[in-house]
Amino acid sequence: MAALDGLPPLRDVIQRHGLDAKKALGQNFLLDLNLTQKIARTAGPLDDVTVIEVGPGPGGLTRAILALGAKKVVAIERDARCLPALAEIGAHYPGRLEVVEGDALKVDFEALADGPTRIIANLPYNVGTQLLVNWLLPGRWPPFWQSMTLMFQREVGLRIVAGADDDHYGRLGVLCGWRTKARLAFDVPPQAFTPPPKVTSTVVHLEPVADPIPCSAASLEKVTQAAFGQRRKMLRQSLKPLGGEALLARAEIDPQRRAETLTVEEFCRLANCL
Ligand code: SAM
């Protein structure tokens, strides 16, 4: 398509800079700037907002975020081969793109936030869930981000938004349900990526809830790990190592129930009774 920003088509950028995709880095690039704009728009208004992007790659999503008016994008990219392509985008939008070369799992994101901050990313699948969990568990709440708009494999997206009695409900659903309002925005088929991944992807949008139920993240992690570790068993069995029936009695939860039937509020009650 004709570029929305006067920059060269992404296919040319990739060719010129020799950015053949590396599987080990989860590189599945989006070359359709209509689609990257749709993702960026899902985040909400970007004026006066700093956007943190993980894995800009050749910059398709980065360009959309800047074209939609973000005050600044801070992009963390592990693959040094992408830096010259990103520098061209930076030159086109002077002072608005800061690229940090490195592993996003080691970055202090809170230190990068500057005023209202949104996270937008087409995440590398191998580290996507870990990054999400890290962003959900800062000590301070509300967190440094106002929203997260993230691409995942559809299966992971379903686990993020799942609630009680849903087949996809598990530890991730409890954690996300505890601290955020999460929704599936739209699916993206494999052929939208270069190279195409094996499965359908989905864009998830999360916003922090103002007052999550008071509860320690470590305790919540303990109860959900034990309960969903044996999800088909009754809780009196799966929670035995944590106190079993006595714990369930303190939390006033029927010991015959199974993990997938408990609401987030009930998991928090259990965590608080540990
Ligand atoms: N944003 C680009 C797009 O939408 O076309 C690329 C997305 S691609 C799915 C994931 C990107 O994350 C790649 O550019 C890859 O090099 C980068 N990446 C992989 N692991 C990373 C890590 N640990 N930290 C930072 N970036 C990483």
From TrEMBL:
It is found in: Cytoplasm. Residues 35-210 form the Ribosomal RNA adenine methylase transferase N-terminal domain. One of its GO terms (molecular function) is RNA binding. InterPro entries: KsgA/Erm (IPR001737), rRNA_Ade_diMease-like_C (IPR023165), rRNA_Ade_Mease_Trfase_CS (IPR020596), rRNA_Ade_methylase_Trfase_N (IPR020598), rRNA_adenine_dimethylase (IPR011530), SAM-dependent_MTases_sf (IPR029063). It comes from the Bacteria. One of its GO terms (cellular component) is cytosol. S-adenosyl-L-methionine binds at N28, L30, G55, E77, D103, N122. Specifically dimethylates two adjacent adenosines (A1518 and A1519) in the loop of a conserved hairpin near the 3'-end of 16S rRNA in the 30S particle. May play a critical role in biogenesis of 30S subunits. This is Ribosomal RNA small subunit methyltransferase A.
